[in-house]
Write a structure and sequence with these properties.
The protein contains 3 helices and 4 strands; from the N terminus they run E-H-E-E-H-H-E. With 101 residues, the chain is an alpha+beta fold.
């Protein structure tokens, strides 16, 4: 069954431009490295500065494969370290949605 992976976060006040640039760089790297097509979404209501990145996969195993590579150090330092100070700690969430139809 198809699944959608969604990671959301809340940008630090005053860091909108830098955080959006970081997300764009990360999405480009994900496309080139893992052949996924993440989309950037912003929340229109609720906390200001809330963003999410969503990607669609054929199955959960594809998400697991990417996560294992990231955990083993596949992610360049400029992408993994750049998020420090850009997002409010404790407000990031990962969700995996199962498509049922």
């Amino acid at each position: 069954m198809a699944v959608t992976f969604v990671r959301s976060g809340l940008m630090m006040p005053g860091k909108y431009k830098e955080a959006m640039q970081w997300v764009g760089t990360r999405n480009k790297w994900l496309r080139e490295t893992f052949d996924v097509d993440p989309t950037l979404q912003v929340l229109l209501g609720g906390p200001v500065g809330r963003v999410s990145i969503a990607s669609h996969h054929d199955n959960i195993a594809q998400i697991e494969e990417i996560r294992r590579k990231l955990v083993s150090g596949a992610e360049p330092d400029e992408i993994s370290l750049a998020r420090e100070g850009l997002f409010v700690p404790g407000y990031s969430r990962d969700r995996i949605w199962l498509q049922i139809d």
